[in-house]
TrEMBL record:
Residues 355-453 form the ATP synthase A/B type C-terminal domain. The gene is atpB. This is V-type ATP synthase beta chain. It comes from the Bacteria. It comes from Candidatus Enterococcus myersii. InterPro entries: ATP-synt_VA_C, ATPase_a/bsu_AS, ATPase_F1/V1/A1_a/bsu_N, ATPase_F1/V1/A1_a/bsu_nucl-bd, P-loop_NTPase, V-ATPase_su_B/beta. PROSITE patterns: ATPASE_ALPHA_BETA (PS00152). CDD domains: ATP-synt_V_A-type_beta_C (cd18112), ATP-synt_V_A-type_beta_N (cd18118), V_A-ATPase_B (cd01135). NCBIfam families: PRK04196.1. Coiled coil: none annotated. Produces ATP from ADP in the presence of a proton gradient across the membrane. The V-type beta chain is a regulatory subunit. Belongs to the ATPase alpha/beta chains family. Residues 10-74 form the ATPase F1/V1/A1 complex alpha/beta subunit N-terminal domain. Residues 131-349 form the ATPase F1/V1/A1 complex alpha/beta subunit nucleotide-binding domain. Keywords: ATP synthesis, Hydrogen ion transport, Ion transport, Transport.
């Protein structure tokens, strides 16, 4: 039997204390009936003897302590899932916001998910083509991986996110592919940009979109990525689909965690973030993967803006520990007009070797990737040397490398946000750039591959 309590003790920010409760569970969903008859939802954060601390999703403004009542519903926050979700847009709590009909759920799922047995996990090793050369060739994304994008304030991560959502595909399979997009604390303009892009390109037809805007309650931000991941797990593990989850901006999620932690008067950790930030982020990122015996997979691309472009800030720092690499956007490349401004040298995909090679991409993938990395690094060094000592200080080979670095950025990295390159086109472009170098410099590629793929100098 559901009891109703009129024993609200105090309200602090988005939090509310309820006294003299019994049988209440952690993360249990609650309903608050205001004196006006308005209903708000919340969740239990903490239980101590007969007191419960709850967070209210819609905020606590206007709650009269004496005349409002609280009901504990006996279950955690849930999302009603169905295949009808594809092509639809929801708010951060999973309610339709596209003026379409209510979803008739096939089942109700706990948004906190279920723990995956590590022994049941399958190793990620199938190539996902994003159509972006800097990712597909040099920092390859594979099914079941979590590969974050580290951006900065004002950098074009929204354009990159929309491009990946629009272009991503799993090659050599007839299995269904879907994109789950979660906007976390983003502005109205950003939300409109994504929705317009999804509608214009038809990407919305294979997408499930969750939008939590900057003017929505911060507390809702905690639920938004969990809603998205719950939908993704349903489509992947129960419907056999390959699902790509794009979450932007994880920094806003962490700021909401810090706000709630401060309201709970918890002892702060680094830079005021709660000490459990790492654990909390892990509960999201570790929901990516493949499960043995099941066809589907969940692949994650979380996007975060590094405060002051600082890679050592707690959010990118802890994210880097949990995930399998990172794609880093460069402010210098952005100022130079490179689109997308992906800085390939510090970027990394730890699983790239597993998703490349014959039958997945092409036999020359790994060798050309290593050679391009090496040549670009040498070219950057040569350009920096020329700035300090002048061009006359460079050898003839250094000058060729400097030219290579210039063309690599303008022709290879700078592909724009509308170009969708196949992996074959990317590999061929890589060979064209390598043809600038003397054959004697191609030390990371076998001779038979050079004979087969290297174009003749025109």
């Amino acid at each position: 039997m559901i009891k109703e309590y009129k024993t609200i003790g105090e309200v602090v920010g988005p939090l509310m204390a309820v006294d003299k409760v019994a049988g209440v569970k952690y993360e249990e969903l609650i309903e608050v009936r205001l004196q006006t008859g308005e209903m708000r939802k919340g969740q239990v954060l903490e239980i101590s003897e007969d007191k419960a601390l709850v967070q209210i999703f819609e905020g606590t403004g206007g709650i009269n302590l004496k005349d409002s009542a609280v009901r504990f519903l006996g279950h955690p926050l849930q999302l009603g899932v169905s295949l009808d979700m594809i092509g639809r847009t929801f708010d951060g709590l999973g309610r339709p916001k596209d003026n379409g009909p209510e979803i008739l759920p096939e089942k109700m799922l706990d948004i906190n998910g279920e723990v995956i047995n590590p022994m049941a996990r399958d190793y990620p090793d199938e190539f996902i083509q994003t159509g972006i050369s800097s990712i597909d060739h040099l920092n390859t994304l594979v099914r079941g991986q979590k590969l974050p994008v580290f951006s900065g304030s004002g950098l074009p991560h929204k354009e990159l996110a929309a491009q990946i959502a629009r272009q991503a595909a799993v090659l050599n399979t007839d299995d269904d592919f879907a994109v789950v997009f979660a906007g976390i604390g983003i502005t109205f303009e950003e939300a409109e940009y994504f929705m317009e892009d999804f509608r214009k390109t038809g990407a919305i037809d294979r997408s499930v979109v969750f939008m939590n805007l900057a003017n929505d309650p911060a507390i809702e931000r905690i639920a938004t990525p969990r809603m998205a991941l719950t939908a993704a797990e349903y489509l992947a593990y129960e419907k056999g689909m390959h699902v790509l989850v794009i979450m932007t901006d994880m920094t806003n999620y962490c700021e909401a965690l810090r706000e709630i932690s401060a309201a709970r008067r918890e002892v702060p950790g680094r830079r005021g973030y709660p000490g459990y930030l790492y654990t909390n982020l892990a509960t999201l990122y570790e929901r990516a993967g493949r499960i043995k015996g099941l066809k589907g997979s969940v692949t994650q691309i979380p996007i975060l803006t590094m405060p002051e472009d600082d890679k050592t800030h707690p959010i990118p720092d802890l994210t880097g520990y949990i995930t399998e690499g990172q794609i880093i956007l460069s402010r210098d490349l952005y100022k130079s007009g490179i689109k997308p401004p992906i800085d390939v040298l510090p970027s990394l995909s730890r699983l790239k070797d597993k998703g490349t090679g014959p039958g997945k991409t092409r036999e020359d993938h790994a060798a050309t990737m290593n050679q391009l990395f090496s040549a670009y690094a040498q070219g950057k060094q040569a350009k920096e040397l020329a700035v300090v000592l002048g061009d006359s200080a460079l050898s003839e080979v250094d000058k060729i490398y400097a030219q290579f670095a210039e063309r690599f950025e303008t022709e290879y990295v700078n592909q724009g946000y509308e170009t969708n390159r196949s992996i074959t086109e990317t590999l061929d472009l890589g060979w064209q750039l390598l043809s600038i170098l003397p054959k004697t410099e191609l030390k990371r590629i076998k001779d038979d591959m050079i004979e087969k793929y290297l174009p003749e100098k025109g």
